[in-house]
Amino acid sequence: MLFCIPLSAVFSATAPVAAEQVPGLVEAAARKHIERWADAAGLSEPQVAVTVVPGTRPLAACGQGVTVQGADTRLPSRMRFLAICNGAGGWRYEFIVRAQVSARIAVMASELAAGKVLADEDVLLERHDISNIADSISDPADAVGMSGKRTLRAGEILRKGLLSAPTVVKRGEPVRIVARREQIEVSMAGEALDAGARGDTVRVRNANGMVIRARVTGAATVEPVSAPVTANSPSE
């Protein structure tokens, strides 16, 4: 997920290229790709260092212009780029590129037990190397309100895979069904027949005894996605 940015031709030189210039073109292409990704990911104060690993195959000049393409850019710590000499008699080289990327990312301020909901004071921003981390979190707001799948240690880098949305509607407990249309809001009592986190769809029995499907919008609150509540429904 980290580097899933469409990348066909990230760098192209139309003038003749000397053999010793090819690694520089690959480095420029890799750096441009990482900078595009860092911007799209909203990384805070990213810092990048790029190294093109020398190959054993002798390089050759290209009189037709060189195009550099990304072959595998999933993790910056080990990427593969292709340098292609266009035209008849051209060539194709593969390069390993290692990049080190650091940024200010979300980390735990203190230990928090599994299942506990993260609050603002639980999350800090610190600079860390994320070259081998595919799901770091740049904005603390994306972690606040989530809960850890396991105990989260103080200083631990927060990753999307470690977090889940907490259950805010519990099976068998009362919920408030809220239907909104334009400027009209109607609510009624109901009972949750399923447990769910924010955004989940659950079954709810309304005050009329009808079972509907509803989307969880908050703590003990849902909105109907079928059999909508009407203006004639009793209010809670």
Give the helix/strand layout.
Blueprint: E1 11-13, H1 22-41, E2 44-53, E3 66-72, E4 79-85, E5 92-108, E6 123-129, E7 147-148, E8 163-164, E9 167-169, E10 174-181, E11 184-192, E12 196-197, E13 201-206, E14 211-218, E15 221-224
Parallel strand pairs: 10-15
Antiparallel strand pairs: 1-3, 2-5, 3-4, 4-5, 5-6, 7-8, 9-12, 10-11, 11-13, 13-14, 14-15
Task: Jot down its keywords.
disordered N terminus, disordered C terminus, five-stranded mixed β-barrel, mainly beta, 236 residues
Summed up:
With 236 residues, this protein is mainly β. 8% of the residues lie in helices and 40% in strands.
Structure notes:
It is elongated, with a radius of gyration of 26 Å. The two termini are 44 Å apart. The strands form four sheets. Strands 1, 2, 3, 4, 5 and 6 form a six-stranded antiparallel beta sheet that branches. Strands 10-11-13-14-15 form a five-stranded mixed β-barrel. It has one helix and 15 strands; from the N terminus they run E-H-E-E-E-E-E-E-E-E-E-E-E-E-E-E. The chain has one helix at 22-41, and strands spanning 11-13, 44-53, 66-72, 79-85, 92-108, 123-129, 147-148, 163-164, 167-169, 174-181, 184-192, 196-197, 201-206, 211-218, 221-224. By secondary structure, the protein is mostly beta strands. 8% of the residues lie in helices and 40% in strands.
